[in-house]
């Protein structure tokens, strides 16, 4: 009886901790709005299109020399690790460009084929991309152009986790490994309770 009571209290304490964290995440208002962008086939896509699925979302650009490819490879590996367990729901990998001037649909399609086969790339007008980045408080600043007109875009390096309700659940910095990301996503899946209608 004592052990059962202890387990019950432990479970209740963990549930309350998760509820406090989710309340805190919602209060940040990250990713609460919608976005209107286009995928690599030119089809209009919004955040609502990904409801019902877990999403790992990264903001970057195709001309990024090293950080973005590394982060997309890590994101792809985390998704593959999660896919290895057929009991888990699928995770949708998603990439939104922060450089719509150079990253049109064709450029995104060429770039993203080197990563996870289900990775969806989104672009749009400069305004649409700014609005999408702002919803996640992603810092974006294009640097000066060189003699060839080339430039680098400085941006926040974070991968965001959205649950099937479209709610921001967590974010992962460069220091997190694919294994750590996958483990965290699995933990969120295990504790997930859908929002009441």
From TrEMBL:
One GO MF annotation is:
metal ion binding
Domain Thioredoxin stretches: 26-190
Q: Which UniProt keywords apply?
A: Copper, Disulfide bond, Metal-binding
Report the subcellular localization.
Mitochondrion inner membrane
Assigned protein family = Belongs to the SCO1/2 family.
**Disulphide connectivity of cysteines:** 64-68
Superkingdom of this entry's organism? Eukaryota
Q: Which PROSITE patterns match?
A: THIOREDOXIN_2
Q: How does it sit in the membrane?
A: Single-pass membrane protein
Look up the record and report any one GO term of the cellular component aspect.
mitochondrial inner membrane
Some GO term, biological process aspect, for this entry: which one? mitochondrial respiratory chain complex IV assembly
Binding site residues for Cu cation:
64, 68, 155
Q: Where is the signal peptide?
A: none
Protein name per the record: SCO2 protein
According to its UniProt record, what is one Pfam family this protein matches? SCO1-SenC
């Amino acid at each position: 009886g004592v052990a059962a009571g202890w387990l019950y209290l432990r479970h209740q304490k963990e549930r309350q901790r998760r509820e406090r964290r989710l309340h805190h995440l919602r209060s940040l208002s990250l990713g609460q709005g919608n976005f209107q962008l286009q995928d690599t086939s030119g089809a209009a896509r919004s955040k609502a299109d990904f409801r019902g699925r877990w999403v790992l979302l990264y903001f970057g650009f195709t001309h990024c020399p090293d950080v973005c490819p590394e982060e997309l490879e890590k994101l792809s590996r985390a998704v593959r690790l999660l896919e290895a367990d057929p009991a888990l729901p699928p995770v949708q990998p998603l990439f939104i460009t922060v450089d719509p001037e150079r990253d049109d649909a064709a450029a995104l399609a060429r770039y993203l084929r080197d990563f996870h086969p289900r990775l969806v790339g989104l672009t749009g007008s400069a305004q649409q991309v700014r609005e999408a980045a702002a919803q996640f408080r992603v810092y974006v600043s294009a640097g000066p152009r060189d003699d060839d007109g080339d430039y680098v875009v400085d941006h926040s390096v974070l991968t965001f986790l959205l649950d099937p309700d479209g709610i921001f659940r967590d974010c992962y910095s460069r220091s997190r490994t694919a294994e750590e990301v996958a483990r965290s996503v699995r933990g969120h899946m295990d504790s997930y309770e859908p929002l009441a209608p």
